[in-house]
Amino acid sequence: MSMNLLRLFRSRNASAPVARERLQILLSHERGLLGQSDLLATLREEILAVVAKHVVLDPDKVIVKLERGKTVSTLEVDIEVPNNFDKSKAPAERRMAG
Amino acid sequence: MAKVLVVTSGKGGVGKTTTTAALGAALAQSGQSVVVVDFDVGLRNLDLVMGAERRVVFDLINVVQGIAKLPQALIRDKRLESLWLLPASQTRDKDALTDEGVGRVIEELRSRFDWILCDSPAGIERGATLAMRYADEAVIVTNPEVSSVRDSDRIIGMLDSKTVRAERGERVEKHVLITRYDPARAARGEMLTIDDILEILATPLLGIIPESQDVLKASNVGTPVTLNNAESAPARAYVDASRRLMGEEVAMVVPAERKGFMNRLLGRRAA
């Protein structure tokens, strides 16, 4: 009886478990995001280099997106290939920019 | 061999300066030579907590820029022979610190002291990154509160990526120090418990400093809490933490306030 009363009392005032759960969810998301910034830049640069070997493209029209879901994340690569883009007009360093 | 230890947290007001002063004094009291270095350029406070605010002539920036030699800027503690302070500048801003300048000063300190305790400013800007840059070990000061735990997590990530050790593929030895802990509130489910915090941060525990009025009393008079009232609960907790830093095995307990005679007579529970 007294244990039940204690438990009742405790659960009514227990905000700590809420804090704990909020932190766990938030941090798992933030840790992902922070690791992501470098990964995305690297991916973008390397994908760009590979595609540019074979196709003429505008480096500014390459979009790499990573979306994190609960069980699955998706990597979206969007490359616009112009029909008449003049490669010679794009400066070399711009072509390499990440 | 000299050890460089950064006291950091991300969040402000959690007890970095209190901790730097208390651990520095505790290490010095056990015979180690210690320098506490204030990296909070523009908002220095370690001098005040150490009670040396009227003795500052030269500071870290003067030494980094070569205006003063290191021995001219070091201030010896009035109570402990082997405890020294290297204050921050109050007038300059943090951009006056350079990576290689700080590196040079740290190297020189390594040749003179057993322990170099770097008191980091709050935040994740230049001052904070330079305070941790050359660290071998880190104490992450954390309050049992959501914003503090989140910021500690962020700082742990930086210790693993932005330090010289991390860049060399070595590890910075990290410890969490929980301050302002109230065991009674944690038991009632009103405060994150030690286990909650350690599970979230996945970093070993250095110590638990209980919430106590003695911390404010000590800073009021400019004395590290370990020297001001060595019998107080936070002082005993800091001494235990300092012994763990020196590699001793010390049982992890939360020191409680000792009950006064009247309280014991009346059977009051200690907070």
Structural class of chain B: alpha/beta
Side by side, the strands of the main sheet of chain A go 1-2
Number of strands of chain A: 2
The number of E-state strands of chain B comes to 8
| Cα radius of gyration of chain A in angstroms | 24 Å
The helix count of chain B comes to 14
Number of helices of chain A: 3
Estimate the strand proportion of chain A. 5-15%
Approximate helicity band of chain B: 40-55%
Uncertain stretches of chain B = none
Give the overall shape of chain B, derived from the CA principal axes: globular
Note the main sheet of chain B.
8 strands, mixed
* Alpha carbon gyration radius of chain B: 18 Å
Please write the string of helix (H) and strand (E) elements of chain B. EHEHHHEEHEHEHHEHHEHHHH
Kindly, what is the distance between the CA atoms of the first and last residues of chain B, rounded to a whole number of angstroms?
Answer: 41 Å
Oligomer designation? heterodimer
- Strand order, largest beta sheet of chain B: 3-4-2-5-1-6-7-8
